[in-house]
């Protein structure tokens, strides 16, 4: 198994104040199964981290995919390949996001709206 299947097995924790949001229409996925799993909605749980039937999560802001860690919190393990079709997934843009935000001097108080979504990656 390639060593980057779990991208270094980084466990990512999503801060509570950063509400999870479903992918926008601009998001592109590798296969119908991935798209279907990410579109799954549960009648009992609005948050995918609370639902034991949700397996994967996508952060459009960081363009990263992960397997949900059902430990009562909003955490996930980054993955490098689609569990269904085997396609290599995009490299996480998390480090790039933090680098850009820091270089531009943004804080939570003055963070432009596009940096709260994946729009910051599409503006070039």
Give a structural overview.
The protein is α+β, with helices and mostly antiparallel strands and 124 residues long. The chain has one domain (7-122). Helices cover 18% and strands 14% of the residues. It has 3 helices and 4 strands. The chain has helices at residues 32-39, 94-103, 119-122, and strands at residues 11-13, 56-59, 64-69, 75-78. The chain has a 4-stranded antiparallel beta sheet. The longest helix has 10 residues, at 94-103. The chain is globular and about 40 Å long. It starts with 10 loop residues before the first strand and ends with a helix. The model is unreliable at 1-8 (pLDDT under 50).
* SSE pattern, N- to C-terminal: EHEEEHH
Mean pLDDT: 85
Distance between the termini: 36 Å
Q: Give the % helix.
A: 10-25%
Low-confidence stretches: 1-8
Summary tags:
3 helices, 124 residues, 4-stranded antiparallel beta sheet
Secondary-structure blueprint:
Layout lengths: L10 E3 L18 H8 L16 E4 L4 E6 L5 E4 L15 H10 L15 H4 L2
Report a brief summary of the structure.
The chain has 124 residues and is an alpha+beta fold. Helices cover 18% and strands 14% of the residues.
């Amino acid at each position: 198994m390639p060593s980057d299947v779990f991208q270094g097995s980084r466990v990512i924790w999503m801060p509570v104040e950063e509400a999870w949001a479903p992918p926008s229409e601009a998001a592109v996925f590798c296969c119908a199964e991935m798209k279907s799993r990410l579109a799954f909605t549960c009648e009992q749980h609005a948050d995918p981290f609370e639902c034991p039937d949700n397996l994967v999560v996508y952060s459009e802001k960081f363009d990263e995919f992960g397997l949900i860690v059902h430990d009562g919190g909003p955490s996930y393990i980054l993955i490098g390949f689609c569990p269904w079709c085997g396609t290599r997934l995009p490299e996480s843009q998390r480090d790039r996001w933090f680098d850009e935000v820091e270089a531009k001097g943004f804080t939570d108080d003055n963070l432009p709206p596009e940096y709260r979504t994946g729009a910051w990656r599409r503006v070039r």
